[in-house]
Write a structure and sequence with these properties.
mainly beta; 10-stranded mixed β-sheet; 8-stranded mixed β-sheet
């Protein structure tokens, strides 16, 4: 006899000897016994000493925070469904809660604290959060303008995918997100006229991060209000008809893509080549902006000497890159980095440096 059947048999036997008014709860319990006992409690019950994860948004004045979707998972309380062939499929249970980020005093910071350990009989753990920013008043862009997408963030705290998929970026430690956004006013006609104000940023509507060790998540959206982009979709579905984009510099481009060219927007605002804003296309950037990392790394084989590392805007080391350093001792050191981005060995008397220049760009 299986354990659950044995327990049910024992309950029935015991009920025969109970007073009548005690039998009803037992019968009710039997009705739900196959659902993991007498109504298993699926609620959250975070312990008082649960570690907290703090999410903070530094909010531009024209935007507002969206309601945060918080998902907890449980390996104990399984979710059971049927597969395409009728087979039984078990997955970790999911429990969703919704939180509003609260303003911190009179500042532009909005924050929420989440218990990492959800507790309860299911032993819930924090799996992921979905949040973001949108325009607080879409109608300032015209009558019947509604809020569109963009400005969304998903952070995953475990090894599972989020409801919106897997991570685009994986980070160690706490997570700081600093992203540029542009106003995007779009008009569509097919299926009825609609007008949206969205946020055009890098990637799609949501950027997805995995931060297994994070205890603090800080999101700083930077809104460039004076660099709006406009789009108009075709009025009829016809071969050769594409969405027309009007960029802040007045250029008009008709393209197959459904959203603005973010790199073009970055280029218009800064005057730099689009490749300079993409980690993957940075090799073609004609105007790289290197920096000297402040860490002084002692040279193991040369006591009294150390090196610096020179990296690009993305933090990647720059090999064969020209530099000119003025050390603390007043001496000037001019050379190129080695294949790993390290400077030549410098005497301890040069640290910390007074000044650094990158006079000529050489690979």
């Amino acid at each position: 006899m299986r354990p659950i059947q044995k327990m049910a048999f024992e309950l029935v036997a015991a009920a025969k000897h109970m007073p009548r008014f005690h039998r009803i709860p037992v019968v009710l319990c039997m009705m739900f016994f196959s659902l993991s006992g007498c109504r298993q409690d699926y609620s959250l019950a975070p312990p008082a000493n649960s570690e907290k994860i703090t999410v903070t948004v530094k909010l531009p004045k024209e935007l507002k925070t969206e309601t945060m979707w918080v998902m907890y998972r449980s390996a104990i309380c399984k979710s059971i469904r049927r597969g395409a062939s009728g087979q039984r499929v078990e997955q970790d249970g999911r429990h969703s809660v919704y939180k509003e980020l609260e303003r911190q005093g009179e500042s532009d910071l909005y924050q929420v604290e989440l218990p990492k350990d959800g507790g309860g009989a299911c032993r819930w753990h924090l799996a992921n959060v979905t949040f973001g920013v949108v325009y607080a008043d879409p109608t300032r862009f015209g009558e019947n303008v509604t809020s569109g997408g963009g400005g969304g963030v998903v952070v995953i705290f475990d090894y599972n995918d989020s409801p919106r998929g897997g991570a685009d970026i994986k980070v160690e430690g706490d997570l700081t997100i600093k992203k540029d956004y542009y106003p995007w006013l779009s008009e569509s006609f097919l299926g009825g006229y609609k007008k949206y104000i969205s946020l055009s940023g890098e990637g799609g509507i949501y950027r997805i991060y995995q931060a297994l060790e994070a205890r603090r998540v800080h999101f700083k959206p930077i809104l460039h209000s004076n660099f709006a982009v406009y789009s108009t979709e075709p009025k009829e579905k016809k071969e050769g008809n594409h969405t027309k984009f009007t960029y802040p510099d007045g250029s008009v481009v008709e393209e197959r893509q459904s959203q603005p060219d973010f790199w073009k927007l970055q280029s218009i605002r800064t005057g730099r080549a689009p490749e300079c804003f993409s980690r993957w296309r940075y090799f073609a950037c004609p105007d790289p902006r290197p920096r000297l990392l402040p860490d002084w790394l002692p040279e193991p084989d040369q006591p009294g000497f150390g090196r610096y590392v020179i990296v690009n805007e993305w933090g990647s080391r720059l090999p064969s890159y020209s530099y000119r350093l003025v050390g603390k001792d007043g001496r000037t050191y001019e050379e190129k980095t080695d294949v790993d981005g390290f400077t030549d060995p410098l005497p301890d008397s040069a640290h910390p440096v007074r000044d650094v220049e990158f006079p000529v760009w050489k690979r």
